[in-house]
Write a sequence for this structure.
């Protein structure tokens, strides 16, 4: 895409959605000198970016048929340490990046056979994963259940405190000069003669040279004049809970994945346990069944959690595309850019998305990593304007 004003000066950009994706793009654009306005219908960081577990799990979550996502995820993993350091410096706060790696534990002989089979697949992708015998796993995590049969060890899958990340991005974006308006819902995206005109809020057009659609699971709800069909993004519900450990004597130090749940320990003692994966639209309810399944799966792996106080339960909505890979790159009219559909990996993909989308907006260059992830793969197009 070529931003209308990119050749003379940096463009005037509206970013729809102030989750981690919109905020990080806004931060990068404002740093470069673009005039950036971030609009959010709620408060910044209150969507999926708040609900997430913060795992940076490019290897542990690699699945067949998602090679483009894997390449993007691995690139983002490589960016994370420098991105976190720069962000912490810019925002003046920490974001809780932890680099202990991830243990994917087997608790039965069946689990062990499944994981060893999965290991062959992960190694075929050249991923840095290895089998770890039970005794070695127990040295790292002594509170694991006696049924432990060994684990798949993924040393490059780390975690970050996603709530701190969103707060830091908000501060950094505003410090760099971006303007954030909360409680402002975009109704539609307007264009004419093949160019973006801006966004419509309460019936009034707000003009922009470039509009970045980063509204997460709600991206499909925002009409784009003449666009058929709408972007294929749907909410994928996830229920989560947090227990409270003693931060001085935590039960767990690594990210732990077991059949039916993952457990993510924070520096402040919170132990995040997630997550259900449900096709229920924007259903906000925390259910007994959801909590039961997560707690049971977590308890089988780490029985001592039964003594821990329950801190919080919540629901979030992953922005899932039709192939569960993000939708990144130019839209069907000049000046419209998509940055959505990050599904279960939006925290992981924040640094690489911000880099690729800001380069596209500022310089018109398309990172080869995002080329296969354009909306065109779904046949989304614009009607003649
Ligand atoms: P969001 O954070 O949802 O932000 C979108 C924003 O757009 C919202 O603030 C919303 O208010 C705003 N908006 C919507 N409509 C409008 C409108 N009309 N006008 C203006 N603003 C609007 N990812 C990982 O990498 N690791 C994990 O461990 C992980 N765990 C997860 C666990 C759960 C339970 C869930 C739900 C998600 C998880 N994810 C994880 C995925 C990750 O949270 C998302 O991919 C990521 O947060 C998407 O960020 P976003 O900025 O696109 O969306
Ligand atoms: N990536 C973890 C989740 O989406 O639940």
């Amino acid at each position: 895409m070529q931003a209308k004003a990119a050749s003379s000066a940096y463009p005037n950009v509206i970013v729809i959605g102030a989750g981690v994706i919109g905020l990080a793009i806004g931060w990068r654009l404002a740093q470069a000198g673009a005039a950036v306005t971030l609009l959010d219908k709620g408060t910044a960081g209150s969507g999926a970016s708040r609900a997430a577990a913060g795992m940076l799990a490019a290897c542990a979550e690699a699945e067949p048929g998602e090679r483009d996502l894997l390449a993007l995820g691995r690139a983002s993993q490589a960016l994370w340490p420098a991105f976190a350091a720069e962000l912490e410096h810019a925002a003046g706060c920490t974001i809780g990046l932890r680099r202990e790696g991830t243990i994917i534990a087997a608790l039965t002989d069946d689990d062990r056979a499944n994981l060893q089979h999965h290991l062959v697949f992960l190694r075929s992708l050249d991923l840095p994963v290895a089998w770890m015998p039970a005794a070695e796993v127990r040295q790292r995590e002594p509170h694991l259940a006696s049924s432990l049969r060994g684990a798949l060890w993924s040393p490059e899958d780390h975690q970050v405190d996603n709530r701190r990340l969103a707060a830091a991005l908000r501060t950094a974006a505003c410090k760099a000069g971006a303007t954030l308006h909360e409680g402002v819902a975009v109704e539609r995206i307007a264009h004419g003669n093949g160019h973006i005109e801006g966004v419509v809020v309460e019936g009034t057009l707000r003009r922009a040279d470039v509009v970045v659609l980063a509204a997460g699971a709600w991206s499909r709800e925002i009409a784009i004049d003449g666009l058929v069909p709408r972007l294929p993004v749907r909410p994928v519900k996830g229920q989560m809970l947090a227990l409270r450990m003693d931060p001085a004597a935590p039960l767990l130090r690594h990210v732990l994945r077991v059949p039916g749940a993952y457990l993510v320990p924070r520096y402040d003692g919170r132990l995040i346990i997630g997550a259900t994966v449900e096709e229920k639209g924007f259903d906000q309810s925390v259910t007994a069944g959801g909590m039961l399944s997560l707690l049971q799966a977590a308890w089988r792996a780490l029985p001592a959690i039964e003594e821990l106080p329950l801190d919080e339960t919540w629901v979030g909505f992953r922005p899932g595309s039709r192939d569960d890979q993000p939708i990144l790159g130019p839209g069907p009219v000049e000046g419209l850019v998509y940055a959505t559909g990050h599904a279960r990996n939006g925290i992981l993909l924040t640094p690489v998305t911000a880099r690729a989308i800001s380069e596209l907006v500022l310089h018109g260059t398309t990172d080869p990593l995002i080329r296969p992830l354009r909306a065109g793969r779904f046949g989304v197009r614009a009607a003649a304007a």
